Structures are given as C-alpha cells and as structure tokens.
Amino acid sequence: QLQLQESGPGLVKPSETLSLTCTVSGGSIRSSGYYWGWIRQPPGKGLEWIGSIDDRGTTYYNPSLKSRVTISADTSKNQFSLRLSSVTAADTAVYYCARHDITMIVMDIGGWFDPWGQGTLVTVSS
Amino acid sequence: QSALTQPASVSGSPGQSIIISCTGTSNDIGNFNLVSWYQQHPGKAPKLLIYEGSQRPSGVSNRFSGSKSGNTASLTISGLQAEDEADYYCCSYAGSSTWVFGGGTRLTVL
Asked: Pick from A33, A70, B29, B62: most CB atoms within 10 A?
C-alpha cells in the first residue's frame, strides 16, 4: 500500500526558505507514468496546487508561485522535496504531498491526487 | 489561473440527495472533462472520491457520482448520511501543465 509522509520544520521565518520532504513507501517514485505533487491549504481555506514532478524529473508549477518554488526528487531515497523561497505569513498553511495521476483520453486531459500524506503545518513567523 | 467556483455551503437531510457544483471557464472545466473530486473531514487529509469526471476509486460508495455540463462539473451525493458531513473540493486541468482546485464546499447534514 502506497504511503506518503511529509517532514520538515514547522516554523519558518519571513523572507527565508521553506523546505519540506515527502518520503514515499510501498512504491517507487520512479514508477512510469506517475507524477508527484505538492498541495497546500491555509488555515480555514481551500486547497491550492503548488506543483508536481514527473518520473523523468520534469517539473510543473502553479504560475502564481512559479518564481519562488522548486520541486526536486531523490530517487535513491524515494523522496521528493519542496522549496519555497521568500516566504511571508501568507505562506502559512498545511502542506500535503500526494501521488499525482495523469490521464490522457483522446484530446482530453485529467488528473487526480491519490493517496495523500497526512499533511504538515508550516507557520511563517518571526 | 483562478480557483474554480463552488458554493461555500450546502445542506441536506439524511436520505436526501444533494448536488455540489464546480464552475470554471473554457480554459479549464469547459475544455477538459476529467474533473476529480475530494472529500475532507476536519483535521484530515483530502480523500479522492471521483476521478476522470465520473469514475469512483475502489472503496468509494456508489452514492457519490460525478458529471459535467459546459463549464460546470457536479458532484451528486445520494442517500445522504451523517458521515458525509465534510468539505468537498473539485479539481481540473487548466492547460499548460497546470491544475486548479475549487474553493471548497462545506456540506452540512441536518
């Protein structure tokens, strides 16, 4: 059974860089056809897709965060990571990692996130 | 890239059916049919309910169903149960290898 677990500091100072790691067990992040994604949820608010990385290491980012986000993968450790630079209080959120399935049917494209990690709260504060 | 529009809240009585709408534009839902839906209970991670617009993962009740018309996707929950009380989110491909979620809908079972 595939499981994902986020880890990293729960408190980050403004203007610094948020760094989180997602450890995958029960499957390989090198599995062909799968992407691996990061999603966040500010307290009391909705979900926001941050970005994803595919099995070849190609990254895809939310345009609103693209200038500050880096997603990378370490296949030897079966982990993928998120770095978000120049954080502010607006980046305070629960951060989730998830496997990101993509499907293409004729000219249509879909995708879904499953399973998800339990999430980790990151607070940006001095 | 703007969040998909969902009603902030919906409610229903046990046994009833409710529909949660998710409205986008021709850049996302209007052009791509394969919307996914998620259920989130307080303090928990989201759970996949529907993928590829209308497919249910193994273990998800057939009381949950998905559909789409034009720029609006819909999640129908039939035979409402107390445990369905949760937040629900839609998600769509938005072109250029990007993805967008809806703002979320709080379902209250009366």
From this structure: B29
